[in-house]
Write a structure and sequence with these properties.
Length: about 100
């Protein structure tokens, strides 16, 4: 069995994943750029799929956003923080707790 040659861009959007995760934390592009030691313009380019980060920066993005690199690359559709059995509202509440915890550390 062979793998498809093309990635289905309707399903996978690297920039959308970065932007959505960043927005979930209430961060601006500048906030995320500062956390990973990058320029705001770079974050903008990633979110618009104009450019893709080099591997070391991809790893920093994953750590800052608390997801796996596999999630960012579309290999895995689940974020690394598993919230089983919660409603969407419950997940938002838990995301808020994580955000507060991160900011305090």
């Amino acid at each position: 069995m062979s793998l498809p040659d093309e990635i289905d861009e309707e399903i996978y959007d690297f920039g959308m994943r970065i932007k959505k995760l960043r927005a979930n934390y209430g961060w601006t592009q500048g906030d995320l750029a500062e956390r990973i030691g990058s320029a705001t313009d770079s974050i903008s380019c990633y979110e618009q799929n104009y450019r893709y980060p080099p591997i070391p920066r991809l790893m920093k993005l994953a750590k800052a956003l608390h997801v796996s690199v596999d999630y960012l690359l579309g290999i895995d559709d689940d974020s690394s923080i598993k919230l089983y059995g919660l409603t969407d509202e419950g997940k938002k509440v838990m995301d808020g707790f994580v955000k507060i915890f991160i900011e305090q550390n």
